[in-house]
Write a structure and sequence with these properties.
This protein is of the alpha+beta class. The protein folds into two domains: 34 residues; 161 residues, Glutaredoxin, CATH 3.40.30. Helices cover 37% and strands 21% of the residues. It contains five helices and nine strands; from the N terminus they run αβββαβαβαββββα. A seven-stranded mixed sheet has the order 2-1-5-4-3-8-9. Strands 6-7 form a two-stranded antiparallel ribbon. Strand 1 and strand 2 form a beta hairpin. Helix 2 packs across helix 5.
Amino acid sequence: MTKFRLAIIATAFVALIGLAGLNYYISFKDSQRSSTTDLDPSMLPGGAFTLTDQNGQVVTEGALKGKWTAVFFGYTYCPDFCPLTLQTLAATQKQLGGKAKDFQVIFISVDPARDTPASLKAYLNSGGMPKATIGLTGTQDQIDAAVKAYRTTATKVGAGDLYTYQHTTAVFLMDPKGRYNSAYGYGIQPDEMADMIKDAMAGR
């Protein structure tokens, strides 16, 4: 096979990957605004969980009731996605203005071995985090159950003290009845997220 033909094949392959990525991005962005009323609720993120918050109190899915809730899975040792997403949520909280009183953030750790209630509390009290964030941890089985309920993923990578996690970076917006409303991808800007949350609050 000639170098020219190889170049053509390589170019076509890259183009296909680009189109697939573009289609995924468009479909994901559209899904952020789409209604879920015609979907089977059992297939949507969300469900029962029993975990422990940063104050050592047992928390269940009942904590979602009464407010719009951004649920995010991560871990305190995360070097990039987690702190940046939480900072985005903090900025989004400010962008909501008066509507922020009806909005809360729940951060669920996927690293129960290191993320104790005390370490979660220290982490969430550090600068740049959303106000009044509920940090949750638990046993490995409890975390696994929450991960499964939200149809997300968390895979440990490495061993020893330097392991990391590959995990879903989406933020799940749950309505005041604890039902899934929409999901926001990593990298979304605070003003855009705030506008989407306001639309959800208004039933648009």
